[in-house]
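Incident log, entry 3
Record: protein acetyllysine N-acetyltransferase (237 residues)
Problem: checksum mismatch between cached and fresh output.
Input:
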Amino acid sequence: MIDSAIQQKFDNAKKITFLTGAGVSTPSGIPDYRSKNGLYTNDASDKPAEYYLSIDCLKNEPEVFYDFMMKNMYYPDAKPNVIHERQAEFTQKRDAMVITQNIDGLYQKAQTKKLVEFHGTLFDVYCLKCGKHVDYHEYLHDMHHKDCGGILRPNIVLYGEGLDGENISRSVAAISTSDLIVVVGTSMRVYPFAGLIDYRPNSAEVVVVNQEALNLGFPITMVQEDASKFFEDLQVN
Ligand SMILES: [Zn+2]
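Fresh output:
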């Protein structure tokens, strides 16, 4: 059972923003490459995952980049779980938005109505040479664009690249007008995403649902439990 005081915060909120990370996707079978059990430590090579996810790797060793993408990043058969689905329901029935760090496309699959994919998505692919966007299935078969021979890439923010300005402004606009901010499955240590919370109104309530207790430096309601369990019990009223 969910704590009734917490359910009430959701029921009474006029505008909700969810800030989410890798912990939302692990129940769908997608590993968190930053975590202990993620790719970072499973990788037999001497380079950290951050290198393979960098603009330098894409530019200098496109074959290595492509190989890393195919082996570690794409889970085209993964399905949204109850966390994605419940948050999507909030965006459909209430004034709510999801801002996620995840690039796995699961919020889109769950039909999230108002969504910012802060770091882009693996399922939007375009050609570096001609700029055309192609179906991601083509990329799963070949790193080259069949029309022009250019190198294809996913529309994700790589290390060494800047963020999309529109994503930032939409995120700031949502947070600065929300009275309930819900942090789920992220330790809020990766900037600039983590800095978004600083745009909240002083009066906004912040609820954190995470396995590990977080100290954000201001008062929060900490729900230290399995996010799947929490969202299974949470009602969209
Ligand atoms: Zn092309």
